[in-house]
Write a structure and sequence with these properties.
The chain is an alpha/beta fold. It folds into 2 domains: 54 residues, no CATH class; 241 residues, Rossmann fold (3-Layer(aba) Sandwich). 39% of the residues lie in helices and 15% in strands. The protein has 8 helices and 9 strands. It has a 7-stranded parallel beta sheet with strand order 5-4-3-6-7-8-9, with helices on both faces. A two-stranded antiparallel ribbon has the order 1-2. The longest helix has 29 residues. It is globular, with a radius of gyration of 21 Å. InterPro entries: NAD(P)-bd_dom_sf, Sc_DH/Rdtase_CS, SDR_fam.
């Protein structure tokens, strides 16, 4: 709805001159969620709405599985955008410390915490959230559920029940527990981003077995349900479904790379930074929700 121009926000802050040109819209409801103490409607330029809804500087992101590969690439990109970080790792203390030192050297004003967590343990996840509460004074605004597990067992007759249960536990159940741990904070502030790391396996492809495909397909189903349930709170929920990404353990050894790359339409492996590009786009594009983005070099 258009209205009379106003060059200050509800707190009395002047609107930058660069945004004064263009249509003015009545801001109310979810559109004013970035002013949590404002109850009344007001007139505001559309560029201001978009800038506030998609700004992630100063937010807190939780990235699981951040000691290397995709998780570390996401941490670097978020740090460049001024996002505070809570990073988890399972066992590689040297790698997570090296990453943290790198990020703090480049962005000394950021709060960065690290947490050793087995995401297959609900108790360890809950303890992690208590640590985050203490170190950051809040729950995460952005969740990147990246930590996962996938043992290559192609045939169902070779997959034990224990292997199936463990894979579901680490990939699907952990993402559910992580989402539950952040969603109340996101609801209260009417802003949030939840990004799951799925896989081409969730589409029926990939080189792992049905245990892994089930865990990733279930993740996409959960994402789509949550996206409809949480949209009214300005929480966007999406997943990224990569395939054949180098430096992630997806490829068994360096000798296998040429053969694997030959089967990809683009003729090469993806790199973690390309996955991080998509994650960053999702974090800064609140209008996108309920989408599973296949990043697979042309594989279907």
């Amino acid at each position: 709805m258009r209205g009379i121009r106003s060059y200050s926000d509800p707190r009395g802050n002047p609107i930058p001159s660069s945004t004064k040109d263009g249509p003015i819209y009545l801001c109310t409801g979810v559109k004013t969620s970035f002013y949590p103490n404002s109850q009344s409607a007001f007139w505001c330029p559309l560029p201001v709405i978009m800038a506030q809804l998609n700004e992630i500087r100063g937010r807190l992101a939780l990235i699981t599985g951040a000691s290397g590969g995709i998780g570390a690439a996401c941490a670097r990109q978020f740090a460049e955008k001024g996002v505070h970080l809570a990073l988890t790792y399972s066992s590689n203390l040297t790698a997570i410390n090296t990453l943290t030192e790198e990020l703090k050297a480049a962005s000394p004003d950021l709060r960065i915490s690290t947490h050793q967590v087995d995401v297959g343990s609900a108790e360890q996840i809950q303890d992690m959230f208590l640590q985050i509460d203490k170190e950051h004074g809040q729950r995460p605004d952005i969740l990147v559920s990246n930590a996962g597990y996938g043992k290559r067992v192609p045939q169902i007759w070779d997959i034990t029940l224990e292997e199936f249960d463990y894979t579901i536990n680490v990939n699907l159940r952990a993402s559910f527990i992580l989402a539950k741990g952040v969603v109340e904070h996101m609801r209260n502030q009417r802003w949030g981003r939840i990004i799951f790391m799925s896989s081409i396996a969730g589409y029926g492809g990939g080189i792992n077995g049905c245990h892994y495909a089930s865990s990733k397909g279930g993740m996409t189903g959960m994402m789509k349900n949550l996206s409809t349930r949480l949209a009214e709170f300005n929480i966007s929920v999406n997943d990224v479904a990569p395939a054949m990404i180098g430096d992630t353990g997806m490829i068994p050894n360096a000798q296998a790379i040429p053969e694997v790359a030959a089967g990809i339409p683009l003729g090469r492996l993806g790199v973690p930074e390309e996955v991080a590009n998509v994650v960053t786009m999702l974090a800064t594009t609140g209008y996108m929700t309920g989408q599973s983005l296949l990043l697979a070099g042309g594989l279907k």
